[in-house]
Amino acid sequence: MAHHRTFDLLSRLPKVDLHLHLDGSVKPETLLELALHQGIDLPVYDREGLIPHMRVGEECGSLIEYLSKFHFTTRIMQSGEALERIAYEVVQQSAEHNCKYVEVRFAPQLHRNNGLTVEETIHHVVEGMKRGQRDFGVRGGVIAICMRNHSCQSNLEVIEAAAQFVGKGVVAVDLAGDEAAYPPEFFREVFAESTRLGIPVTIHAGEAAGAVNVYEAVTNLGAVRIGHGVRLKENRSILEMVKERRIPLEMCPISNIQTKAVSSWEAYPIREYLEQGLLVTINTDNPSVSGTDITNEYRVLSDRFGFTAPELVKLIMNGVDAAFLDEADKLLLRREMENEISSLGVSL
């Protein structure tokens, strides 16, 4: 009975999701419908049959295996219509889990096979998010991703296009891809441009490579948030720097285990980080690839680490503090969240 009550509370708690990839959030039925509409061949033509092609299991061997699932979804995400619909449905799915604010990230250059410009890809994702906000009341922002395996020129195009949408839907830029093969110091020129243009930066770091990448991302790429950061614990001085600067970590528990960023739940540093005073946030990463949702992420923390309701609320409110929102909007979101949490009888 207690477990049922806990799950009910987790479902009802308002939440935020700051680290969610658009191409890792495609519903199987949407992929099927878009593929049929676009004349794209699929290995199977039923929802359940598609799931193994889109989702990893607990036995996922590595980040590379995990990332291979994305080739399946990006094929159908090459039109403005598809991008807008999937962005809209991400907001819809967020609303179903009482997520009040969501930041959706995607790599514009991966969606240009049919001739869209970088600006057009961003426009359509922003429009889908805005329509979702109108229909479901979930606020949000778009993060444009630069890819580690792309040229400097391709990534500069993303930065410059994103700058045109700052204040109109885009809230930040990011760097993602094979962290071990392409360390952050390769991208100083790209992110010098984001700094010059005043665009906030979050960087995937300390996931598939060590804590030194977190240091480089913060000190030389201008990162004010870090995607994952699970390997930060390997270097005490870098951890202390992140703590002192109040740099939020966008942790994604289920994904971090599946990609082998962390070897086991026993080794997952979430409680250690929280007790050391790091600004930890909880996010989904890729709901359709990981087979998760934001409520499920909190349920896993409750079950595996014994997090209490006030501790879970602390993690949720860390997400509000870390959001790429201006101070006025952040204050409004904080008040809305606090009121809803108080109404559930949970102390803040």
From TrEMBL:
The protein's required cofactors: Zn(2+)
Residues the entry annotates as binding Zn(2+): 19, 21, 204, 285
GO molecular function annotations of the record: 2'-deoxyadenosine deaminase activity; adenosine deaminase activity; zinc ion binding
SUPFAM superfamilies to which the protein is assigned, alphabetical: Metallo-dependent hydrolases
A Gene Ontology cellular-component term: cytosol
EC number: 3.5.4.4
Record flagged with keyword Phosphoprotein: no
Full protein name: Adenosine deaminase
